[in-house]
Amino acid sequence: MSWVRKSLLSLGLIGLVVIVPARFALADSKDSSRPNILFILVDDQSPYDLKIYNPQSELQTPTLDRLAAEGTVIDSARHMGAWVGAVCTSSRHMIMSGRTLWHIPDRRNNTKNNPNAADPNLVPPNLVDSTLAAVFNRAGYDTMRTCKTGNSYDAANKQFSVVHDAVKRGGTDETGSHWHAQQVLEYLGQREAKQDQDPFLIYFGFSHPHDTRDGKPELLNKYGATNHRDPKSLPALNPNQPKLPIGYLPEHPFHHGQPGLRDEEHVSGVWKNRDEATIRNETGREFACSENIDIQIDRVLKKLESMGELDNTYIVYTADHGMAIGRHGLQGKQNLYEHTWRVPMIVKGPGIPSGTRVRGNVYLLDVLATLCDFAGIEAPQTNEGISFRPVVEGKQETVRDTMYGCYCGGTKPGMRCVIDGDWKLIQYDVLDGTVREKQLFNLAENPHEFIDSHSHADVIAMTGHRPDANQANLVKDPRYADQLAKMEALLLAEMRRLDDPYRFWDQPDR
Question: What is its EC class (predicted)?
Answer without folding.
Answer: hydrolase
